[in-house]
Design goal:
CATH architecture of one domain: 3-Layer(aba) Sandwich
Strand content: 15-25%
Radius of gyration: 19 Å
Number of helices: 10
Mean pLDDT: 90
Number of strands: 15
Strand order of the largest sheet: 3-2-1-4-5-7-12
CATH topology of one domain: Rossmann fold
Structural class: alpha/beta
CATH class of one domain: Alpha Beta
Low-confidence stretches: 1-25
Helix content: 25-40%
Length: about 290
């Protein structure tokens, strides 16, 4: 398999929570970055940030110590959520999903307290709040789902509000993927999926989401909403047809069997690209797979 498809296993041994001594003693540099939720996306952000600012320190805040050993090995100084720091950071990015918490907006508000207001604070949200389920067009400032209609979008919109009220910015991301993660990987595992095949979805590679995040952080935007997608919306069926065509996956997808679930939306982030000065490495899912669609 080509490099983008190589999957590496990593250990998770845990480590003492002593890695933020530099930050707690006030020795934070002008380009240092705090990543709240240094998972797949957060680690890629760290890697790209260090390429932009050699010599900077990158800190990572986690809910457990399970992956601290891994983080230390890749140069991220870990701390546990709730650790009291005596210093705030010029750059903060919140990448943690709302899965492991009962108060996601509160967690985002707490993360904002770690920002000194100088560089930028970025919250990676989702494109889910856009109020469209008829495969219609959406851009950065398209209408969002009203509060109270859906618990899922309520949580995201309330978290976004915490960020924007404090001068931070929001990046609403389309469906994240890489070779072994994303909708296509999940559907391959399932084989048959009870969803309609004509639902339009939108994608962005993890590497591109990371490079866009870094580009936004560097520009020091405040109180803004950006959109991250590859501008090549696909139906679910088209996604899996491309997977089959690529020949890069051993599992075989059987099909979608749903008929009545909602349709999706077609995202376009031309405005974000122009303002930030960014283009994706992978222009489309087909480009990533090395096939034409």
């Amino acid at each position: 398999m080509a490099n983008p498809f190589q999957v590496s296993a990593s250990s998770s041994m845990g480590a003492p929570n002593e890695e933020l001594k530099g930050a707690s003693s006030g020795l934070v540099g002008e380009n240092d970055l705090l990543i709240v939720g240094p998972g797949v996306l957060g680690r890629l952000v760290a890697e790209k940030w260090r390429q932009e600012y050699p010599g900077c320190q990158v800190y990572g805040q986690t809910v457990t110590t399970d992956h601290h050993d891994e983080l230390i090995k890749i140069g991220i100084r870990p701390s546990l959520k709730g650790t009291k720091l005596n210093y705030r950071f010029p750059y903060v990015i919140f990448c943690a999903p709302p899965l492991q918490t009962s108060d996601y907006p509160g967690d985002v508000r707490e993360a904002a307290l770690s920002w000194n207001g100088e560089g930028s604070f970025l919250f990676t949200s989702s494109s889910a709040p856009y109020d469209c389920n008829d495969n219609g067009q959406c851009i950065e400032d398209s209408p969002v789902v009203p509060i109270g209609r859906s618990p899922r979008t309520d949580v995201l919109l309330k978290a976004e509000k915490e960020v924007l009220e404090r001068g931070g910015s929001v990046l609403r991301l389309a469906g994240l993927y890489k070779a072994d993660r994303g909708a296509h990987a999940y559907w391959l595992e399932k084989g048959t999926v009870e969803l309609r095949p004509d639902h339009i979805l939108n994608l962005i590679h993890y590497e591109d989401a990371a490079s866009l995040s870094v580009a936004i952080l560097k520009k020091k935007f405040h109180d803004r909403i950006f959109l991250g997608c590859d501008n090549h919306p696909l139906s679910r069926q088209e996604v899996m047809d491309l997977v089959a065509k690529s020949g890069k996956f051993t599992k075989k997808f059987e099909g979608f069997t749903g008929t009545s679930d909602p349709l999706g939306k077609k995202l376009n982030n031309t405005k974000t690209r122009e303002e930030v000065g960014w283009e994706p490495k992978y222009a489309s899912f087909a480009h990533f797979l090395g096939v034409s669609n």
